[in-house]
Write a structure and sequence with these properties.
By secondary structure, the chain is α/β, with parallel strands linked by helices. It has one domain: P-loop containing nucleotide triphosphate hydrolases (Rossmann fold). The protein has ten helices and eleven strands. Strands 7-8-9-4-10-11 form a six-stranded mixed β-sheet, with helices on both faces.
Length: 264
């Protein structure tokens, strides 16, 4: 097995002519983007254009669906993420995922954090790791006196931060977030956005969102996806740039129409 190694690469991910297939159906076509280290990159676009499919390709989670495969290339830290001798389990440890709806395990708050670390053979102080992860997720002060209570007893926003802490516990380098605030109220949403700004000091974050205000507020770069205009229903990135440019001076009229709410 080839070991993925950390390097001084500026870009965590680089895609080249990336296509993603579900069986014979091509869901994503010809994506060429580079995602910078310690930045927040948002992926936006109308429903059905392949945003979540692209996001999940970055930690090979699409492979959990039989028949899913890619063509083209994704490089992670300069190395081929899909090389035959790269361990997909190690990929998913290095590149964590937070899902649309909070999905804590039906275990204690403590065990939600400790579970992944145990699976990966963590040998240090588990108490210290749990506290570190919860502090990183801005949740420690709210739960430090009830670590043995079920994670399911927390509010929706707290559950989502618990899921972020769980992802952090295995010390990833990248955190992928698929609509992480769509099920949350506005106050909890702002907490998640504030947390992202803190986390990007140590992690690279890629987020899928339908919320244009969230993308504009929270991200450094934005990838705009649309269905390709070839009748084949494949999604592609039509524009990728700094977020301020995407929202104020987009190059593509379809991007302008989407971010201003004229269609989408």
């Amino acid at each position: 097995m080839e070991q993925l190694t950390s390097t001084g690469e500026k870009y965590v991910f680089t895609t080249k002519n990336l296509g993603i297939y579900y069986g014979e159906f091509k869901a994503v076509s010809d994506v060429n983007i580079s995602i910078e280290r310690n930045k927040i990159t948002a992926i936006i676009g109308p429903s059905g254009c392949g945003k979540s499919t692209l996001l999940r390709a970055f930690n090979r989670m699409n492979e959990l669906n039989p028949g899913t495969h890619i063509d083209g290339q994704i490089k992670f830290m300069g190395q081929d993420l899909y090389a035959a001798d790269v361990d997909a389990v190690e990929v998913r440890r290095r590149i964590g995922m937070v899902f649309q709806r909070p999905n804590p395990f039906p275990k204690s708050i403590y065990d939600n954090i400790a579970w992944g670390a145990r699976i990966h053979g963590y040998k240090g102080s588990m108490d210290e790791l749990v506290e570190f992860s919860l502090r990183q997720a801005a949740l420690w002060d709210e739960v430090k006196d009830k670590l043995r209570q079920s994670g399911l007893s927390l509010s929706g926003g707290q559950q989502q931060r618990l899921c972020i802490a769980r992802a952090i516990s295995v010390r990833p380098e990248v955190i992928l977030m698929d609509e992480p605030a769509s099920a949350l109220d506005p106050i909890a949403t702002i907490k998640i956005e504030d947390l992202m700004q803190e986390l990007k000091q140590e992690y690279t974050i890629v987020i899928v969102t339908h919320n244009m205000q969230q993308a504009a507020r929270a991200s450094d770069y934005t990838a705009m996806m649309m269905l390709a205009e070839d009748g084949k229903r494949a999604g592609t990135v039509i524009e990728f740039n700094e977020t301020t440019t995407i929202f104020t001076r987009p190059n593509d009229t379809r991007t302008e129409g989407y971010v201003t709410g004229r269609y989408g």
